[in-house]
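Encode chain A's predicted structure.
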Amino acid sequence: MSEFAKQAPRPSRVPATRVGGIVLAAGAGARMGHRPKCLLQLDGVSLLARQLQALSNAGINDVVVVLGHHAERIQQEACLAQFAARTVLNLQPDTGHVSSLRVGLQALPASFDAVLVALADQPLINTQDVADVVRAFANRPDGTHMLQPAVQGLPGNPVMFTRAVGQQILAGDAHIGVRQWQAAQPDSVCRWPTANSHYRTDVDSEEDRLAIEARTGQSLRWPADSGPPVPTL
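Encoded structure for chain A:
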């Protein structure tokens, strides 16, 4: 067993009273013409603003948006949103979600009891969805320290875990993130079964965008200043 796997956090049933939020928004959007997916607008409201609203309304106290590609434009959107959030920059966004997660964890204050990690390109996540994850986390089985929605057995987002787990991730090697922690300590993970497909819905391609429009009857369009897609060579 690795040293990382041995560092299991102590079981705790104390309800999380202060929750930190991390929104991962550092991707290049390569499959969407190298445009920032979180600026897509669902019925005129950007996906980033919707995530920030959902987190704020669900009582998430501190929110950090991790930027990388398109940082300046996304930061402008974060500032325009009516829900306070700090932004931090991942200088190596092409290394994936793990590096962004670690940048976000480093930016959160030490006073939080738990952290909820959300993706910026999930268009259907709403306040109730976030609140349900927080409630499920508070009622998770004894001995578990991370909760992930499971829709028809498939992993969803957002994910929530204790401060001790966040500290373990940061103490591990640079490649350690949520998936690696789960693989090292599967018995400490609560796979929360739910039929809510919102947790599995994100926008990775133009086909995804059109499918979400057809499914919801709502418009999911680029803002006027997003620019034309960059051709893939």
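The chain has eight helices and eleven strands.
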